[in-house]
Amino acid sequence: MVFDDETRALFQEEVMENLAELDGALLELEKSPEDTSQVDRVFRAVHTLKGACDMFGLGRVVSLAHNLESLFDHVRGGWRRVSKDLLDVAFLAKDRFSAMLAEGADPETADDGGLGERLKALLRDPDLPEASQPPAAKEPEAACAPDSAPAGNGTSCQNWRLRYAPSDPGHLTRTDPLALLDEVRTLGQVRVRCDLSGLPELADLDPDDCSLRFEATCDIPGEDGDNALRDVFLFLENPDDVTIGPVDATGEASAAPAPQPQPAPEPSRPKTPEPAPSPVAARSPEPTPARPAAQAAPTPPAPPVTPAKPVTAFRPAAAQQVAATEPRRPAAPKKEAMQSLRVDAAKLDDLVNLVGELVIAQARLTQLASVLGHPSLTGVAEEIERLSNELRDNTLGIRMLPIGTTFSRFRRLVRDLSSEMHKSIDLVTEGGETELDKTVIEQLNDPLVHLLRNSIDHGIEPPADRLAAGKPEAGTIVLAAEHAGGEVLLSITDDGRGMDPERIRAKAVEKGLIAAEARLTDSEIYNLIFLPGFSTAEKITNVSGRGVGMDVVKRSMDSLRGKIEVHSELGRGTRIIIRLPLTLAIIDGLQIKAGDDRYIIPLSLVEECVELPRERVQASGRGRSIQLRGEIVPYIRLREAFELTGQPPAIEQVVVTRFEGERAGIAVDQVMGQQQTVIKSLGGYIGSVAGISGATINGDGTMSLILDIPTLVASVKSYAA
C-alpha cells in the first residue's frame, strides 16, 4: 500500500506520542514496580505502536514490538517480576524503536546490537516458575444479568458470541492470540473454547502461523459490548478473522455465521478430521501446541487460565488472575470523551500573527475614535476592542501548553547519565501543570538539558563522597515551575557540592576573562560560568569540560527574553532560576512618554503611578528615592537613563514596578494609558540593547520601544555605583 506524505506525517506524529507514552510508563514502573496499572500502560503503548507499524509494513519494528509485548504479557500473567534487567531491556527497546522509526532510517537493514537476543533470553527464562502451578478452582460469581436484564447491582449485560480464526501467514510474529483473549476477559464474564481441528501434522507445522481457532461467549456490561470487543482486535491484518454477534435466547449467535472449517494456512498441509470443538481454556494446562515452542518469540511453559497469585513483592494484575468464567465488577459510567483536533503548528503561528495585526488595527481605530469624538464610532471602537481582547486571549490560550510535557523527557536523561557516571540521583518535578507559550517550551529543551547535565556532573557528588559528608547516598535534583505575575519561574535545585566562588574567580583570571584586581560580588562571580569557553572541569568528558553548555544556556535565555540567576552555597547545593515571559507574541502594556518618544512598560510589572513635583527631584545624582506610604522606593529618571534632551514637565509621573521581590520606580514625563502590545523584534541589525526588550507599532503607525525594566534598573544602578 502506498501512503501519501500527509499520512506518513500523521504516522510519525502518532508513533512519537506512543514512544513518549512508553518512556513515561517505564519510568513510572521503575519507581513503583508493584504498580500493575503501569504494566498495563506499557503493554497498551507497545500494542498500539505494533498495530500502527504493522499497517505500514514495518516488519522489523513489529517483530521487536511483539517480543516486548510478550515480555510484559509474562509480567501481567504473573510469571515474571519487574526487575532491573527487564526495565533495561525495555528502555533499550524504546530507544531502538526511536532509531528505527526516525525519518530517513531503514528499519529493515539496521542492526539491533543484540537486543533481540536479550529479549528472547528473558522470554525463555521466567523468574517466577512457581506462578505456573495450577491454583484451586474458584467458584464463578454473578456479575450481571444476561439479555440486558437489570441485575441486582443495577447493571445489565449483553451476551455476545466471538469467533477468532487467524488466517494470515506469520500471524504469531505480529500478534499473540492469548494476549488478545486476556484483554477480552477484562471486559466481563468470558468463556473460551479452542478449536484444534485446523492443526496440521507436526512435520508440516509452521511456528509462525496460528492454526488454532477460538470461540468465546462474552457477557459484557453496558450496551456497547460489541464495540469494546472490536476495539481489542482493531489492528488485525485481516479484520474478517473476527466475527462478533449477539447471542439469542437459544444460546446461538444470531448475527454471526456458524463456524466453518477453515483450511490450514499452507495448501500442502493435510487436513485432519474435524471433531467437535473441545472446551479448553484460553491458556490450557494440557500439553497442546496452542503456543508453538519454536515460534519467533519463545515463551515459558503455558500457565493455566487461573494462575495463583504468587507470594512475591510483585502482585500480578487482578484482571489476569481470575478464571475465564469469573465475572468482572460492573464498569463505572463512562465520562464524556474530550474532543480534540490536530492542527499544524504553522497554521497556529499564522493565526497569532493575524491576531497581532488585528490588535494594531484595533488600536488605530480606538485612537481615531478618540480624535473624532463621534459617539457611534466610539461605541463601535469599544466593542471591537472587547472582541479583539477576547480573541487574543483565546488564541494565546491555544498556544499555552503545560510545561510538564517538557519535564517528563528529562527523567530518562537523568536516569541514563546517573547510571553512566555511577551516581544515584532522584529527579523530582514540581509545577508540571504550569502553562507556557509553546514557542517558549520548544526552545527550552536544549538549555534545560545543559543545566541538568551540569548538575549531574559538577553538582551531585559520588555516593562515597556524599556518605562521607553526612548526606544521603542518593542525590536529589528538583526541577520546578511556577507562575509569578507575567512570568514563569523555572528552577533547577540540587543538593550537591555547591560552587566555590574563589575557584571560579581564579579560573576566570587564569583564562583572562577578568582582571586579577576586579572586584566582583558572589552573584557576578557565579554568572562567569555562562561566558564562552569557561569551565572548571579538570578533564574533558563526553558530558562536560569544554565550556560550551552554559554559554548555550545564556544565549537561549537571551533569545527568549529570559533572565537567569545562580544561587549556591558551598557544600549545600546550587539553585539556578530562569525567568521567562508567558508569551512571546502579545502583552498588555502601559504606554508612557519621555521627551518626544513613547515607550511601553509590561503591565504585569506595574503596581501604581504617583506624581513627582519638580521640587522633590534632587539636583544631582542618578540614584533617587520617594516615600510611598512609609516605604522608601528608589526610582530612576528615564530622561537621564536614555540621555534625552529638553526640559521635563513641572510634574513628572513615577511608574512604580515590582520585580524579583523588589520595588523600583521609573520617572517619566507622561503616562498615556494601557494598550495591547504586539511584540516585534529589534532585528539582527540593531541587536541587543540594554534596557530594551523589543518594539511595537502604535495605532498611528509610529513605534514604541518596550522597556526591559529589570535590566534597565540594574544597568543604572551599576553605572551609579
SS strand fraction = 15-25%
Helical amount among residues, as a percent range?
Answer: 25-40%
Which outline best applies?
globular
Low-confidence stretches: 130-143, 145-154, 253-338
The largest sheet, given as strand count, sense and whether it forms a barrel, is: 5 strands, mixed
Strand order of the largest sheet: 6-8-9-11-10
**Number of extended strands:** 21
Question: What would you say this structure looks like, in words?
Answer:
Helix 1 packs antiparallel against helix 2 and helix 1 runs antiparallel to helix 4. About 15% of the residues have low confidence. This protein has a five-stranded mixed β-sheet with strand order 6-8-9-11-10, covered by helices on one side. A five-stranded mixed β-sheet has the order 19-12-13-21-20. The termini are far apart. By secondary structure, it is of the alpha+beta class.
